[in-house]
Amino acid sequence: MNTGKKSVMKKIGWALVSFLPMAGAMVIQIGCSVAASVLISVITMMQQGGQMAADELAVYVSNQILENIIPILMVSQILEILVFGLWYYFAYGKKPRPEGTGKPKLQHILLILVLGLAAQFAISGVLSIVETLAPSLLEKYEQLMEMAGITETTLLSILSTVILAPISEELICRGLVFKLAGKVSPNFWVANIIQALSFGIMHGNWVQGIYAFALGIVLGLVYRRFQNIWLCMLLHAAMNFSSILVGPYYSLFPEKYILAAFVLTMLAAAAVFTLCYRKIMCKEHE
Question: What's the predicted TM-score (pTM) here?
């Protein structure tokens, strides 16, 4: 095999390896669901004395999983933080940041928070416009969100969405996948696209997958700017927390003006996002 072919095979190998953290996270999530199903089945059979029919048991377990999807998700997120946090720490966490990497200041932290808010309202505006004009396009997505309990705001859902998800997903995508994908090519955009693709796939549906990919690109750029995984976690948390504000905000508008509110809010949020992003990336005053 000549040198050129070896180089190509090596790049393909590293590309496949870079998806391992994402695959590992999916295995953990599936494993937690299976473990919960087995546990519920055993407890139910013990309570019923083994008298419940198999089909009835399957329906009951399925309903119990859906009703407790957030606690099960939280268990998987905690396991992901432990597994991938240790991996990231021992592989990359002790290494010094590259020379010339910007150090975040207070203004950067504030801009990150506003950037996350603007990103959420821009995306929500787009989805709301699509849902208003062509509701059938997002019908399955809305049903999936309701089944997963994501549309309900509870203490557990906030803890899962705003704290655990940003920590686990940033460790996986901007932490591990990004670093591993850097072995594929010295070109930043190769690694950035691979980690953003992993981020999109992890969300498990095409609607979230599309905007998660776009946000993953932005998170990758922020990571390159500061080489700080905690800053990415903060931006991610700001985006997720802002989703809680979307519903109450749009409820302030009369129904006949709601489409105009969607459009104007989306445009305003996109403008704020662009302004904040440019200021975050600017190195002029460092």
Answer: 0.90
